[in-house]
Amino acid sequence: MKLSGIAWHGYSLPFSNKYVTSESEATSRCGLLLFLVTNEGIVGIGEASPVGASSPEEVGVVAEILEKSAPDLLEVETRGLENGLPEWNLPTSPRFGIETALLDIKGQAEGLPVAALLGSKPSSLFVNALIAPEALEQAVLAAREAIEQGFTSLKLKVGGGLLEEDEKLVSAVREAVGSEVKLRLDPNQAWSVKQAIESIGRLSRFQIEYVEQPIVASDVAGLAEVRRSVPVPLAADESLSSIEDLQNLLDTEAADIFIIKAAKVGGINAGMEIANEAIKAGRSVVVTTSLESGVGIAAGTHLAAAFSEQPYSHGLATGLLFEQDLTYPLLLPEKGRLMTPERPGLGVKVGSGLLKKYGTEVIGSVGSLFGLQEYLNH
Length: 378
Known about the structure:
By secondary structure, this protein is α/β, with parallel strands linked by helices. The chain has two domains: 3-111 and 348-377, Enolase-like, domain 1 (2-Layer Sandwich), CATH 3.30.390.10; 124-339, TIM Barrel (Alpha-Beta Barrel). Helix content is 37%, strand content 22%. It has 13 helices and 15 strands. The strands form four sheets. The protein has a seven-stranded parallel β-sheet. Strands 3-2-1-15 form a four-stranded antiparallel β-sheet, with helices on both faces.
């Protein structure tokens, strides 16, 4: 089976509330969907969105990369590509999108969900609620709503202001949800080593599950120093983009937990390799999205299904952040759990109506797209 065509379509999904971190604010998520069409009429879908909320300009850059890479992709057999792409000079997010679409094609052809292709099976995954508020009152309300929805784990964005403000925020959320709910913090690299040690030390009294990426990603030695100095486990996120990064983090004993984002490490297979090596070294892993649409979330659930027995909830409930998602069925958690799609392939689809409503002008294609319109209209 060969690929006959490739198409891409930009989108912009509004957040229900402004998404606020220590690094930025956003009212929508700009991204890019990828469609691969085979000569047998099977359509595979993937997400090639830049990591994070991203901008239209960043999405346009990825689209240009796909257009340049399309001729090479259309010249090769699909068999085996889902296990790893050739050494093309592709950034991580388009690699993730292409690999996901190829896995979707293989799963549909074999009648198996992607999780089964990866050696596991669809699972009911514990997931955390994500709270990235503009104000303390908004955070407390969101935390209470999450608990009412059945979440037992919350991730709270901090680090955007003074330590005293973070103390008030974390204290208010902890008081609102009680002592049994797990609470993890994410400063998104906001602190220096000294600030991280002081901040985590003072915030630790609020029963913090772990703190994610407290300092700049490049300072692995500094992260190790923070880990030695605080009573709370640390998770590496932005510091982890490859298997080489993992080895460096392990060698320096810089983190207890590793955040696996398939879009950031270059695909599901790369994520599997990194996660397995981390677990082999006695560490834990948490699979999260990079704020993708339901297409990227679905890919994350298939990856996380292989690690459903890990002690920490996965970060895959980000579909709740959007006013409306692009996929059907919608991938939204119930009672703090998110189910891996069980249908063959990725298990989700995108319709023409949703693309028309949320699509942008970043559109392109190469080759024959026979079967794509029927897929979108189905």
